[in-house]
C-alpha cells in the first residue's frame, strides 16, 4: 500500500499477516521507528535504489511519462529521494 500526503509520498507498511497499515504521518514518530534487516538485504536494496535513481536521471523524458503527477513530484525529486534512502541505508548502524 502506498500513501501520500500534501507534501508527496509518505510510504507504506505491510503487516506480516498480509494486511497493510498506514505509515505514521507524524515525522518524529517515523524517525524514531526502527527496522531490522540482514546486511546482505540492505546492500541489495541500496543497489536497486541506486539503479533506479541513475535510470531516472538518464531517461528523464521516459520517467516523466510513468509518473502520475510529474509537475508536483518529478523524476529528479524521486531520484533525490532515492539517493537520500541509499545514504540512510549506507550510514545505518549495524547491530545484532
Summarize the structure.
This protein has 96 residues and is mainly α. 52% of the residues lie in helices and 11% in strands.
Question: What can you see in these coordinates?
Answer:
With 96 residues, this protein is mainly alpha-helical. It folds into two domains: 1-33, no CATH class; 37-96, no CATH class. Helices cover 52% and strands 11% of the residues. It is built from four helices and four strands; from the N terminus they run ββββαααα. The strands form two sheets. Strands 1-2 form a two-stranded antiparallel ribbon. Strands 3-4 form a two-stranded antiparallel sheet. Helix 2 (39-58) packs antiparallel against helix 4 (75-91). It is elongated and about 45 Å long.
Strand content: 5-15%
Please summarize the sheet with the most strands.
2 strands, antiparallel
Structural class: mainly alpha
Order of helices and strands: EEEEHHHH
Helix content: 40-55%
Arithmetic mean of pLDDT: 75
Key terms:
96 residues; mainly alpha; 2 domains; 52% helix; disordered N terminus
Per-chain topology:
Blueprint: E1 3-5, E2 8-11, E3 13-14, E4 20-21, H1 27-32, H2 39-58, H3 60-66, H4 75-91
Antiparallel strand pairs: 1-2, 3-4
Helix pairs in contact: 2-4
Amino acid at each position: 500500500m502506498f500513501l501520500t500526503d500534501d507534501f508527496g509520498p509518505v510510504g507504506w507498511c505491510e503487516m506480516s499477516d498480509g494486511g497493510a497499515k498506514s505509515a505514521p504521518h507524524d515525522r518524529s514518530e517515523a524517525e524514531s521507528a526502527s527496522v531490522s534487516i540482514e546486511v546482505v538485504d540492505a546492500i541489495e536494496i541500496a543497489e536497486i535504489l541506486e539503479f533506479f535513481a541513475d535510470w531516472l536521471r538518464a531517461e528523464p523524458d521516459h520517467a516523466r511519462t510513468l509518473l502520475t503527477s510529474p509537475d508536483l513530484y518529478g523524476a529528479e525529486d524521486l531520484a533525490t529521494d532515492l539517493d537520500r534512502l541509499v545514504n540512510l541505508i549506507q550510514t545505518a548502524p549495524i547491530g545484532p
